[in-house]
Specification:
Chain A is built from nine helices and no strands. In chain A, helix 1 crosses helix 6, helix 5 runs antiparallel to helix 9 and helix 7 crosses helix 8. The longest helix of chain A is centred in the middle third of the chain and has 25 residues. At the A-B interface, helix 6, helix 7, helix 8 and helix 9 of A face helix 6, helix 7, helix 8 and helix 9 of B. Chain A binds a DNA duplex through helix 1 and helix 3.
Chain lengths: 192, 192
DNA sequence: ATTCGCCTTGGGCGAATGACCAATATGTAG
DNA sequence: CTACATATTGGTCATTCGCCCAAGGCGAAT
């Protein structure tokens, strides 16, 4: 039993963050209460305000943490893409995993919205979008895109827009999106 | 005083809808309470549940009403655009009015999110997006776009995505977006 | 064995919520 | 004038909320 109190504490903190990441998509950002959170994490209600100064801080850390993981998971694949087509294909393929109604998609939408009412969250989210744009920029520059700055910004926005619309019209999948978005990019080596 | 009770009733109903359209962006969909709504509309709290079966129904009717007005306001201009560039320019110009943090943008984002948790709202919203796509489709077809179905869907999504990202990065305005989105469309007559 | 520090418990506070309702007002119809 | 329908009032109900806290638990250090 080498588990110290501090280690158990860190575990509870992590469980609370995990529970938040689950509950935000399930019931919505504003309906994640301290009691619901504690129940899902399997801890006493009072622990929420022991490990976190407020519910808002907890939710922020949980949401941004998950989103950062998702974004960073896509970046390395882009960097090693041989052609523009391969890179775009890869991105849209991973986007297909997000149907607009799955937990991850909902977490994204919920967080975007919550950011409109939380200055700190908005700043963190802006930084995350900037990281994603950076990954897109270097990938595009690698393949001779001249206005990669603008293209990266629009492409990042378009991808989030597709995710948003996919919740309403599920048929908006990568085969339908690819040829249109492809035209935004430099000709590259081949046209699918 | 020819104002009948029924007329006053209809006026109260309308005032409640207007108040809802104001408050949803101000405080957020889930924080629009019956009392706050009644206060803004200048009526007694009990009237909310007299004119509407539930708060959810009121919010739905108010939000979709405003969104439909916004969408339908853009459509006729598109139909009379002489060139592809003129049409896209027009759309992006009207999009510039929505900074991502203004009431209308927030209403859109709030409603998209609320739709993920409200079956009826999702259906109404899907229909609205379909109307917007239709306007885009006929505009594109008019100018020789062959895959106007797919382009309209992606363009509609991209526009919403730009609005979403603009809340985080305000510099994503029409001059930056135009040249990139322009490439998604058929060559048309001129390149800006 | 005692002290120390971190973690945990469960309950309680005031405030706000959606929905509901009996009572009242006000205009129309018989 | 009397009945009636609709609109309105102001308050009550049970429930839930975020946050707080006194008290207890427990391994580590002395």
């Amino acid at each position: 039993m080498a588990v110290t109190a501090a280690e158990r504490g860190r575990d509870v903190r992590r469980r609370l963050l995990t529970a938040a990441a689950e509950l935000i998509p399930e019931v919505g950002w504003n309906s994640v209460s301290t009691r619901l959170l504690a129940q899902r994490a399997g801890v006493a209600p009072g622990l929420v305000h022991y490990h976190f100064p407020s519910l808002a801080v907890l939710l922020r850390e949980a949401a941004v943490g998950v989103m950062r993981e998702v974004v960073l998971a896509t970046a390395p694949g882009l960097a090693t893409a041989e052609t523009v087509d391969a890179g775009l294909d890869l991105m849209l393929a991973s986007l297909d995993a997000y149907t607009g109604t799955d937990p991850t998609s909902l977490l994204f939408i919920e967080t975007y919205l919550a950011a409109t009412r939380d200055e700190n969250l908005r700043t963190e989210l802006a930084g995350l979008v900037e990281e994603f744009r950076d990954a897109l920029r270097s990938w595009l520059a690698e393949h001779g895109q001249d206005d990669h700055h603008q293209v990266a910004a629009v492409l990042a926005a378009a991808i989030d827009g597709v995710m948003l619309h996919r919740a309403l019209h599920p048929e908006l999948t990568s085969p339908a999106v690819f040829p249109v978005l492809r035209r935004m990019l430099a000709p590259g080596t081949a046209n699918r």
